[in-house]
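Minutes, project check-in
Item: structure for the 258-residue chain
Input as provided by the requester:
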Amino acid sequence: MTDHQPLLSRRSFAGLLALAPLFAAGGAAAAPASLRGSVSYRERIALPPGATVTVRLIDVSLADAPSQTIAETTIRPRGQVPVPFVLRYDDRDIRGRRSYALSAEIRDRDRLLFTTTRRYSVLTGGRDDTDLVLERVGAGPGRPEPEAGIDGSWLVQEIRGERVRGRRQATLEISREGRVSGNAGCNGIGGEVKINRNRVDFGRMISTQMACAPDIMRQERQFIEALEGARSFRLEPRRGALELLDGRGRTAMRLRRA
């Protein structure tokens, strides 16, 4: 009598082959990643009731370019400082040989109260510097306050969360009289803006009509739509940073002073 070993059918074998990529993909899935730390300041003053604390993980690899935000979290503290935080991020966004740091700020509605003024390096392979001590805005002795208005020259960094593209830097110029001009990579734009405290109304923008690459044309449409849809702004004079916000308070555009 001959013993027979069970054979794997062709159908079963084909099924295993079909599942193989799924097993491989599952093995490559990113594990949840997070950074834990605290936010504090030295002054013996209480946080206002409506204060928010925002912590960001940023890529600071390029000294001559604006930092790129990898992840951020906003907290409404239940008590006073130090405020603990857990910042979750996708570790697939982290690249070797690049430099990363944490930044933080404390706001009372649209008013910036405290911010980080030095680099807190993380993900270096050593101990992460996650206990952030913030400086009070405008508290430095003998330092003049920067211009608090949004008039001047600005470099556009992001439009609706997307980094600007193209060989030509996207710009926005706002005069003290409320005239607006700029460029989103190809065509020039112009118009006017009305400013009342932190409220803005850019009205209808006009632009030149040169034919450009499709992706730049799309960016220009987003640029104009973001301006026309902006209803308020958030300004950080010491960082030279400006955010235009839409009617729902969402960031429509990020800029920095030229």
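Outcome recorded: The two ends are 90 Å apart (CA to CA).
No further action items on this chain.
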